[in-house]
Design goal:
Radius of gyration of chain B: 19 Å
Chains: A alpha/beta (180), B alpha/beta (274), C alpha/beta (377)
Order of helices and strands of chain B: HHEHEHEHHEHEHEHHEHHEH
Largest interface: B-C, 39 and 43 residues
Number of helices of chain C: 13
CATH superfamily of the largest domain in chain C: Thiamin diphosphate (ThDP)-binding fold, Pyr/PP domains
Strand content of chain C: 15-25%
Structural class of chain B: alpha/beta
Distance between the termini of chain C: 46 Å
Oligomer: heterotrimer
Number of strands of chain B: 8
Largest sheet of chain C: 8 strands, mixed
Shape of chain B: globular
Order of helices and strands of chain C: EHEHEHEHEEHEHEHEEHHEEHEEHEHEH
CATH architecture of the largest domain in chain C: 3-Layer(aba) Sandwich
Number of strands of chain C: 16
CATH topology of chain B: Rossmann fold
Helix content of chain B: 40-55%
Radius of gyration of chain C: 21 Å
Strand order of the largest sheet of chain B: 2-1-3-4-6-5-8-7
CATH class of the largest domain in chain C: Alpha Beta
Number of helices of chain B: 13
Number of domains of chain C: 2
Helix content of chain C: 25-40%
Largest sheet of chain B: 8 strands, mixed
CATH topology of the largest domain in chain C: Rossmann fold
CATH superfamily of chain B: Thiamin diphosphate (ThDP)-binding fold, Pyr/PP domains
CATH class of chain B: Alpha Beta
Number of domains of chain B: 1
Structural class of chain C: alpha/beta
Chain lengths: 180, 274, 377
Amino acid sequence: MEKHEVRLSGSGGQGLLLAGIILAEAAIIDGKNAVQTQSYGPEARGGASKSEVLISDEAIDFPKVRDCDLLLSLTQKSYEQYNHGIKDTGVLILDTSVTVEEGVTNKIYSVPIIDTAAKVLGKPMVTNIVALGAIVEISKIVSYDALEAAVLKRVPKGTEELNKKALALGYEIAKESLTK
Amino acid sequence: MPSQLVEQYFRADNLPQIWCPGCGHGIITRAIAAAIEQLDLDPNKVCVVSGIGCSSRAPGYLDFNTLHTTHGRALAFATGIKLANPDLKVIVIMGDGDSTAIGGNHFIHACRRNIDITTIIFNNNIYGMTGGQYSPTTPKFDKGTTAPYGNIDKAFDVCDLAGAAGATYVGRATSYHANMVTTLVKNGIMNEGFSLIEAISGCPTYYGRKNKKGGPVDMMKWQKDFAVNVTAAARMTPEQLEGKFLIGEFKNKPEPEYTKEYQRIIDSLKGSDV
Amino acid sequence: MSKKVRLMQGNEACVEGAIAAGMMFYSGYPITPSTEIAEISAERLPRIGGKFIQMEDEIAGIAAAIGASLTGVKTMTATSGPGFSLKQENIGYAAIAEIPIVIVDVQRGGPSTGQPTSPAQGDMMQAKWGTHGDHPVIALCPSSVKETFDLTIKSFNLAEKYRMPVLLMMDEVVGHMREKIEIPDSSEIEIINRKKPTCSAEEYLPFKPEANLVPLMADFGTGYRYHVTGLVHDETGFPSNSTQVADDLIRRLMDKVEVNKADIISWEEENTEDADILIFAYGCVARAAKTAIKMLREKGIKVGLFRPITVWPFPEERLIELSKQVKVIIAPEMNLGQMVLEVERLCNKHTKIERLNKVNGEIIYPEEIIAKIQEVL
């Protein structure tokens, strides 16, 4: 049985809830089961938010992450709040702005997700899609084709090309990302 | 021997009603039935909704689709009825405490929505059903069982409140001016939108007795002597109007009606469900 | 991905289920974590010729839905925590006036404003006792997105069949989580509509019960001019001061559920055949229990699950039977002990009952259930 527990974290407004939905939808397109949950504070923007996705070939009972296979953190605050319960084999995908304390033994990918969206693409709104591109390259938990199909289903009309580009760019920068 | 109007529009089996001798509510209820008769509305398509209190017993005596709801909530129930079936003519009967205290929020929002409901507030300036407590329309310094030393709250002007909140037809009459109640209710029903008619009613049992207003005849006489028609008032000086109150039609400014506006949205979406 | 297999949120599944059941009217007031139910209803209903209205407050939200139901349409309102408290007044009204309506409560942490974005199961007893006076209650409790779809339909069916308010007791986890759901074809869905009179208007007695204790219900505007009141009333619908009428009415309202319990009650069992430990859980907590059971079974510990689907009326008989078989019942709840009171009332003669309670706004984890079981073994 293959099971992946993924936690996406960042600041409210970075689109991580949608990223979680897209990831879960991609898993379903791949013929798997998926459950997505979220937690958030009262702020619509800012604060620390997380979206969790469980992907499995079998039925998923408990809907929340317990043994995290993959943590994405786009902000320092969200990393510090949500870096618990990571498996020894779990990987961390962090924006380059996030620094990690000494002694972390997990594999870490430091990826310029925020800068790529804001500076390379000039559209901070696609930060979440860049992140998804990086996640699929590093973890392979869903197929790229399914992920692209799921992205196109959920993004606003007229932004399809931009989002396809963001996904592809996220995939590329992950390849070159720093690992520890 | 019931009159033809009573025979036709009242549930004669339920009479006599529970209101006290000298209460104005029976006169106003009859005046509403007269408006329905004069407009020749199909009784099967008339729905009368009320809240809780003395006035709210009225629908039980009227032979239409009738709904006696919870305290203050009549307009909220009525809004659901009207929106779900705009073919129904919806008439709401409330008391002063019912409509402007516990139901005040529903009242201002029904006005604001301009939903096609005709509301008649039987205003007797007191909570009668519970035994004479002061209400939001009890005049300042008057007494009630819960204002034994005089009421220090400022009273609402129900018509000003309705007009300011967005009702498109507003008027006031009294149980003495019963024909005017009928006329205003008729106009209210014909207005496609939210209409508010305040009907001043005397409560000799509680308000009258507590405030030494005399018996039913004295209270009726007060309505006659102190009411000034709004058209006549326009030609009177402030001194002449001192202590008087206005009756007549205060506002008649039609605006787009809520259920029609909603239907416009439905029509614009036809065939769009996937 | 076929058209019918979708990733769907619990709150969305509630609206889809409602529409599948025939909902044509929704009125409510926005409140976290139920707001998506209002938003999706606002979007969907006018497209199918239905009506949505955002009322001025929670009380008006249920009142308008009750009013609309009297015209013959199926109606729903949804809320959470503080809103459920505010709706109690008119839940009682719908009960005594026998008006079908579905009320959804997506439970969050309380009391008062409490924890608006966090899950809880603190309204379970309020569902039963929240409004004043003796009144019949049907409350259903889903633990997945698919079940939310199914139980919303069932809620409408029961509301229509028994002419009463039906409560769908969700929680924030079930309401907000998204999971795979296969929407059944409409031909596979059983729909029940209220029974209407066929007699003449003169002969119609709006509150005269049929054999199943439920009166026939005419739509306002169809020629049956009748009276509806929240006062105690006789078969004509008009208020009565008779002690006999009052007694008959309240007993009949309660008996509608009591006599028809077998038709209403449902529950789920998992691994109970050989179980000597039983977990009693509902809503999102039942999912933690299922994971815990899998983990414990791998170690050879014989644990089973009893999950009430109708929490009210409570599935008493089967639980009593199981309590005679097991050594202990563990009752994890996201409150400080509510449904466990029923378990204790029914089963404490037969077995030991252990509570596990959490009110910090977080779901109960499988590990916590396992720890509790290890503690009591």
